Amino acid sequence: MYDRLYVHQKEVFDMDTDYFDSFLETARQKSISKASEKLNLSPPALSKQIKRLESYYGTALFYRSTSGVELTPSGELLAERIQPLLHELAQIQREMQACRQKRRIRLGTLPSLAAHYLPKRILALESAAIEIELTVRPTSTEIFALLKEEKLDAAVIERIPVHKSLRVVDLFEEHFYAVTRTSDPLVKATTVSLSQLAEVPLVMYPPNCSVRKTVGLIMAAHGHVPAIKMEVGFGDFLLGFVAAGAGMAIVPELVALHLPHADLQAIPIKEEAAKRTISLISHSASNEKALLRYFA
């Protein structure tokens, strides 16, 4: 029984859907010759297709006369049932073609996240046919401005207040670390406090840096003022100045776990408040859902 069913289904799928299109066009034109012109087929080729359909279903589909053709009751039934089926097959074809095409999401983020958090996730997204166009800026404020201008579809940045029209999902918390030379006596400690950091010279990024702003607010909340000895531009050379002995730096955890100099060491900051939240901010639910499959 199952073998007979398989053979029957195979015969249906072997039937070219063009035959059904030819059948419907012939029914509309009520003429083999007129339908063949519309279909770019010769009359004998069109007649052969119709005869194959009639042979398959075991019944005549058209009444034939010198003036043209008319549908038989069997032909009327087939025309009625096959049109929605062909429409559905065409829709499936369009959807499958869309699946083959890569989806593109414009994503903005910060340098530390671009270097240490996103690479594996972007590769996973691309293997799922989602192309990521990555934009990196040194501050969350700059990335958020691009998002508001709709130059980005989504952003992975430090959590900031946003308009209710945007979608926000917190991804993870990132603690801050103090980075100093391995020769510094402080490296023997398991943690360093904000009060200790307030007494040492600090090498920091410019005032618009989101890390600097967050650290400044945290220290102020604990009654401390950072002693900034040097401001440097954005880039890995901040830690180069620390390695050269200019002072200590305060960096996010992802940076602390990937120090570029062997003579540097990261020490966790003692206070629980010394951290930031990294969030996914997006314009649409579809982009949020696609990204969260790999970011959550």
Describe this structure in words.
By secondary structure, this protein is an alpha/beta fold. The protein has two domains: 2-100, Orthogonal Bundle (Arc Repressor Mutant, subunit A); 102-296, D-Maltodextrin-Binding Protein, domain 2. The chain contains 13 helices and eleven strands. The protein has helices at 2-14, 17-29, 32-39, 43-57, 73-100, 111-116, 119-127, 140-148, 194-197, 210-221, 237-243, 253-256, 285-295; strands at 62-65, 68-71, 103-109, 130-136, 154-158, 167-181, 202-204, 228-231, 249-252, 264-268, 275-282. The strands form three sheets. Strands 3, 4, 5, 6, 9, 10 and 11 form a seven-stranded mixed beta sheet that branches. The chain has a two-stranded antiparallel sheet with strand order 1-2. Strands 7-8 form a two-stranded parallel sheet. A hairpin with a 2-residue loop joins β1 and β2 (68-71). The longest helix is centred in the N-terminal third of the chain and has 28 residues, at 73-100. The protein is rod-shaped, with a radius of gyration of 34 Å. The two termini are 49 Å apart. The model is unreliable at 1-14 (pLDDT under 50). InterPro entries: HTH-type_LysR_regulators, LysR_HTH_N, LysR_subst-bd, WH-like_DNA-bd_sf, WH_DNA-bd_sf. Belongs to the LysR transcriptional regulatory family. Residues 15-72 form the HTH lysR-type domain. One of its GO terms (molecular function) is DNA-binding transcription factor activity.
